Amino acid sequence: MLNKNPLWKTLVVVFVVAIGLLYASPNLYGEDPAVQISGLRGAQATTQTLDTVKADLESADIAFSNIELDNGQVLVRFTNTENQLKARDVLDGNLGKQFSVALNLTPATPEWLEALGGSPMKLGLDLSGGLSFTMEVNMKEAVKKAQEGMIGDIRTELRSEKIRYRTVKAAGDDIEIQFRNVEDIDKAENYLSRRNNDFVYRANEDNLTLKVSFTDQKLKEIREYALEQNITIIRNRVNELGVAEPLVQRQGQKNIVIELPGVQDSAQAKEILNATATIEFRLVDQNGDLSAALNGRVPPGSQLLEDANGRPSLIKKRIMLTGDHIVDAGSGFDENSRPQVNISLDSAGGTRMSNATKSNIGKPMATVFIEYKPTDRKDAEGNTIFEKHEEIISIATIQSRLNKSFRITGLDSPAEAHNLALLLRAGALIAPIQIVEERTVGPSLGAENVKSGFQAILVGFGLVFLFMAIYYRAFGLVANLALGANLVLIIGIMSMIPGATLTLPGMAGIVLTVGMAVDANVLIFERIREEIRAGKSVQQSIHQGYDSAFSTILDANITTLIAALILFAVGTGPIKGFAVTLSIGIITSMFTAILLTRVVVNGAWGGKKLDKLSV
């Protein structure tokens, strides 16, 4: 019999719509204002921190709805933003510099729904509020860092060729090599110029020096590399922060724009993003006099550094390896259950470490943590001057010749190991960065955008609903049912996809989908009308209407989907947000307009003897 639903088809439609309703429902519960207390530089909140927070809030007479400790963080929920802001001020003053106190919005989803994996849609910066940074890359430091690396390479190359020299040091924008005689200058210039075309060489036989400087093309490459590499590393660090759909993109010749949706307090974000951290491996100076160094007589070629507990050691300046060669780092425990960081190097780094350690077995090697911190001073061009802070992480004896994989031990806690591994895994910034602009988009502004966006969706939905109900009568109501189901499925799928974020352009995609979703039904209903006018029976008209219109609907939607996928592939930011909701809407509208409506139509009118049809 025509137009009878197989049981499996009905069950599929009911199941898909029910799943869509289930996972769309968390969006109805809204969010609770909350305060999140997180440890800085590897510290973690404990039950003692939880008790302290609870006591501080109670003594300040600030009511809270819930407080919990999870993954080393304390989360306090409130019923209103007034108490949230009061709590932030109180806790920020009481907890000191060991913890960051961040404002947050936490989903109020019931526990039973969370247990099923239900969570509300993640909203973009324009809807939920958040932080926006414009960061400037310090290009002078990028060139200086490249210069320091070349000084070490030049020393190594001259030694390998047995060309004698006195010193190799930085002299402004140049690298100055001091020799003992003119013959060595000629040998060095000939050898180095054959090995590297990225330098300009200027010999001065009067004072026995050879000055080496970068070519203009090489300087341009260094600056470009610093910017692009910093963008890549910041993206990795933002991913480590767990921010949904962040925006990290280039702006001009030396700026990077970062948007962090949902983040309302910048303490932790600044710490991770600003950390120009790397490590260097150097030998310990066993022959130097530590007592004399503490009195100001530091041996040439060495420097006095301290560890986190203030214990001094004499460390050689010569760098065996820098953190630029690290490709992976993970925290763990050694055979004695002490925290450690396991490091993997790239092939070039493995070779350098192998060559550096083969003749130093049995000698102590220091792992030095280096961080550039901004000061209040400015240079002649108005750029912030950064100070280099060096600290010994560990000193361990080289037991054997190291290669691409080795470990750092001597860390104080698993949290410190985890934090160090995070920074090393995310990468060391090629050059220091500073925040030149910081904007906080408040949740109230986001709420206005959400309200406007949903008003646009509801107005569009309502107008389409009225048109379909008036023009196609009973079949129009079926189309409206499919339209509502389509909207629920879009929201449900957006809530289920871990990385999906709804932005204002994404809302525009939903509004467009609302209008497009009924196109398929219009084609089907018009074809049914044509079949009825041609004198066919009601059942044959329904059957032919759906079957004949299917290929046209499929072609039209596939071409639109291809366009949406191209937008997603080549677009950035707002364009991606628009393409995501449009793509999802096209797929769900195909399901609701063809399969769902046919199940409903067959259930209401299929298999019955009818003389006319309300279409």
Automatic annotation (TrEMBL):
One of its GO terms (molecular function) is protein-transporting ATPase activity. SUPFAM superfamilies: Multidrug efflux transporter AcrB transmembrane domain. The gene is secD. Coiled coil: none annotated. Belongs to the SecD/SecF family. SecD subfamily. It comes from Thalassotalea agarivorans (Thalassomonas agarivorans). Residues 433-598 form the Protein export membrane protein SecD/SecF C-terminal domain. Residues 2-103 form the SecD export protein N-terminal TM domain. Pfam families: Sec_GG, SecD-TM1, SecD_1st, SecD_SecF_C, SecDF_P1_head. This is Protein translocase subunit SecD. The keyword Transmembrane applies. Forms a complex with SecF. Part of the essential Sec protein translocation apparatus which comprises SecA, SecYEG and auxiliary proteins SecDF-YajC and YidC. PANTHER family: PROTEIN TRANSLOCASE SUBUNIT SECD (PTHR30081:SF1), PROTEIN-EXPORT MEMBRANE PROTEIN SEC (PTHR30081). It comes from the Bacteria. GO terms for biological process: intracellular protein transmembrane transport; protein targeting; protein transport by the Sec complex. The chain crosses the membrane at residues 453-472, 477-497, 503-525, 546-571, 577-601. Residues 304-431 form the SecDF P1 head subdomain domain.
